[in-house]
Amino acid sequence: MSDAPAMPTSEQQRRATYRLQLTDDFGFDAVASLAEYFAELGVSHVYLSPITEAVAGSAHGYDVTDHTAIRATFGGRQGFVAMAEKLALHDLSIIIDVVPNHAAGHPVQNSSWRTVLQEGQDAPESAMFDIDWAATHGNLLLPYLGESLADALRNGNVVVTESAGETALEVNGLPLPIRPGTEHLPLKDLVEAQNYELIEWRSPERNVRRFFSIDDLVALRPEVSLVEKMVNRIPLELGAQRLIDGVRVDHVDGMAFPDEYLRDLRRVLPTQWILVEKILAGDEHLPASWPVAGTTGYEFIRDVDQLLVDRRADSALTKLWTEVSGDDRDFDGVRRQARFEVLDGGLAPDLARVTNVAQRLLPHLDREDISAAIRHLCAGIDRYRTYSADDPAAPEVIRRAAESNGFSGDPRALSEVVAVLLDADADPEFRTRWQQLTAPTVAKGDEDRSFYRYHRLVALNEVGGEPSKFGLDIHEFHERMAWNAEHSGHSLLAGSTHDTKRSEDVRARLLVLSEVVGAWKHLVNETLASTSSAIPVVHPVDVYLALQIVVGAHPISEERLNAYLLKATREASLFTTWTDPDDDYEMALQALASLLTSHQALTKAIDSFVVEISRSGRSNSLAALVLRCMAPGVPDIYQGSEIWTDSLVDPDNRRVPSWPQLAALLAEASASDPGEIWLRSEGGSRPSEGDPGLVKLAVLQRLLRIRTRRPDCFGPGAPYQPILASGVGSDSVIAFQRGAIAVMVTRHARQMDGDWGDTEVELPAGRWRQSLVDGDPVFHEGNVRVGQLLGSLPVAVLERS
Is there a contact between 38 and 46 (Cβ–Cβ < 8 Å)? Predict the structure, then answer.
């Protein structure tokens, strides 16, 4: 290593993170070349997607093939060190993504998995993976066939090959290792002699726990010392060399014992910033025993979106959705059905495994009754999972799940299953397996299915969101932020991520629909009338979804809209699916995408509608941005989202930003007054075409400069105090104090139409100056008109002089 400065690790320097998606075309050298840009923007940390070796060409990096090696196509270890040194010269630290829960089940590229296939459960590596060997008498089930084994053999889809003196069993072009000593057996005998059994991919049987239901991602067991050392090796080495300042632990809910893993990780990284990817329910907090700084911020996305939606539109939008869908169920009803579907579908092997464990503990009960009880608890749980036996929240969570509506099975079985879960002295395997089942049930049933079925207002259907809720009271928001200030001052605050279904700006515009329900209903009816006659095959629920996407991401191309609709409808699994695509329906979706982006009358109506709501949407965007940067926690900026972003669900949200454009815009923003930019762009009234989002970038840079100037106002222990508003528009004002910082943003501002009348906020003691715009007057303590504070921007941040 050179003598370049090590990574800064002061907690006060944790101002903001910038999340990057590494690819073979955007590796460590490319990140290093952007160091000056990140520093000028004002972030303190570069937050990297997984850096370990992954399946060749992987665009995300979570299909890890070697946890102990830094990905060569990114630049390898040498490239990482050079990047870290370059970033450190600009006082930038690094957070890396650690993936302890799973690995790629690739028989060629993952040598550990290959050894398990070859040697079976006798291989030392077999302890690394979560495999139920007893379920299949010692064989590993591989769902690699598209037909029966007999047909595959007959059709030549399973053959023996030799390469470089090594014999392999090739299945549909994929070479599998064979057990030593079986090379000379006839093909049929050779297949039967392996430590694995080839089955059809449609078979419900599995004996390998997976990441959710993805066969190519096999579950690791980080509770095993060998695995823990393997996945922590790179973080430990880079941390010891002070090349990183923190880690983000992926999918913490997949672990058997996340508390133990995190405590061990803290021991080897005693001063590092440890964050967990964890989705919290509305009233849920991280277990107090976890030695981590917080989460990656999905709960903040939910709270801000719920804060900005106009909850007075709840009944009107619910009524409209019911009329469009013909379904009067609330979200909870939709969700419950979806959870049952995934439990009986892709997660059926996991449910069977949990049931097997429970049956050993409750042999006097019928297996089907036990399974029904477990299904009911999974369908009724109000969060992703509970944790260890001493989790103080677990008893009430489990009881609420048991008492949820819809159980028609044997009440005695449910009662006894619950009793075992609540018994701290009972065999822990059942409790642990159940906990590992509820998380994928919620993820697949809610976010990957019911979120794509229930379209009342899709801005609320975000990762970590709660579509059954409609609106958050200002006082409740303040209570949550005050709790965060005291307990999680270094948790991330997200707006967009690599997993969000719609970017922050798309959601911000869609939230305005709650303020213009009448005009929205008119556009919906006009669109349904046109599509029902032109494309009657497409169900109205998908038209309703498509129209929201067109409005939220306007202007959007036919190609992007079609790609989104294809993924969304397959995830919903109502009219077409990933495993059984309906070609006719999917062709009709393509026709819908074409109609919504090219039909003259419709596109004119959509464009006019978007113009009417864009200014309010951008006001929402700026409000969300200010809250993210000023609220308790550390703001996270996803690549490219420092300007207006219209991205949708992955892979759309992983598009590479135009770095030269961003650099040029940042230079312009640095020399500009955000207030003047806002007014120059017609107050944000036009759609994003021709206006890349200079005002958002300028506001962000100023917000991060405030965090740099006033580090004592942020971080753990920094104060949070609500500021009271009064007058006719008081419910549309969110204001609070962070020491020498006073913050005010607006919501539902469309109803005020810029005229705040007698609406006032009570500024704390002192002399205050607006920091987001140039030349604004100084304000003094006491009641100040909101209209005066806002000036040329719909948001205000004041510093006490």
Answer: yes
